[in-house]
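Researcher: Last one for today. Full complex below.
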Amino acid sequence: MSDLRARNRQATREAITTAALRLAVEQGPGGLALVRVNDIASAAGVSPRTYNNYFSSREEAICGGQADQSRRAGDALRARPAGEPLDVAVTEAMVGLFTDPEPDRAGLRMIMLTPELEGEALRAFAVGEASLAEAIAERGGETGLCPEVTAAAVVAAIRVAGRHWLTPAANQPFADVIRRALGCLFSPGRTSR
Amino acid sequence: MSDLRARNRQATREAITTAALRLAVEQGPGGLALVRVNDIASAAGVSPRTYNNYFSSREEAICGGQADQSRRAGDALRARPAGEPLDVAVTEAMVGLFTDPEPDRAGLRMIMLTPELEGEALRAFAVGEASLAEAIAERGGETGLCPEVTAAAVVAAIRVAGRHWLTPAANQPFADVIRRALGCLFSPGRTSR
DNA sequence: CAAGAACTTGCGTGTCACGCACTATTTGCG
DNA sequence: CGCAAATAGTGCGTGACACGCAAGTTCTTG
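Model: Here's the assembly. Have a good evening.
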């Protein structure tokens, strides 16, 4: 148990994020102000002061889970076979990362479609850009601007895909929407419907 | 007089954003907490309560100018000649929009490189996505996913370009960096140095 | 097993966002 | 030309919040 401490820490962090997101979903996008810090803390089994040691705002706590997921983007790409072309490697890595457990619709809807959460939601997705850019740079041998642009564009495309997946009209698996969105990015000529 | 009222409103809004950004730059990225609401309001010549009618957080006020600029992305694209290919039209439109007055380095550095401002900064850039996507859809005739993905990717590339332009090492005009970043997006094969 | 690091918690404080009620200015209409 | 309705600015009061500080508690390490 080299790090019993680190695991406890991660556990409480997750307890807080899941509690925060659950309470937010219960109140719906309109009543975000009704989700009190005390409620989140007690729901997570922790003192309000401890909650505040982990997150410095309700918004950050609610979107913390999304941030943790995005942060693994680089590792997801690194796990792809080395011979694979970059575009399919990225696509499959992102599909795996974001649909391995198909995300909870209500949770994602809360995070992405609540105006007061918009900033933190963008931040949560953006934390993946750095690690993804690094992984892309390793794979392509390139360095500097292009990998970062590609990484940021990929993350942006996934955001758009998420928005579309939440649309009541389109009732397709999230994986398909992500593939279509990244297709728009990687093969601009072909208009995939 | 097309609405004296609307113009006054825009004037006070700009007064608040410029005051907020100026004070923030004065304190530097570290001392954001020292920028009090009272200071911003009095520097803008309005009451603190009025400041709060326009913005609901310091961060929003500081990044308000950036948001206003990004919001014009759609119009900037529409102003390009109709025959132009999409990629060059977008590139030139964005170069014009973001470098017509070369941005203030200190201000952009404050907005983009202050951790507490990251969420609002992303939000400020993201407000341009909707209008840009609409303009792209009009031009290309397409609708749905692809224009939105392209718009989001373009905005993301500009963000990365801004980050690179702020790097002390690279001392190039902002326009060049934007062109290189969008080049990474539109012609992925060519590795522009 | 003891010293010290890391984590949690309670308390106190300064700041903030916002609802409400009131005043002043602008607009549109008879 | 004035009068009513709409809109913006302001002061006050309140509830919530983020965080510094200083204990107390649990884990790590030599």
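The interface with chain A takes residues 59, 118-120, 122-123, 126, 142, 145-146, 148-150, 152-153, 155-157, 159-161, 163-164, 177, 180-181, 184-186, 188, 191-192 of chain B (CB under 8 Å). Chain B has a mean pLDDT of 93.
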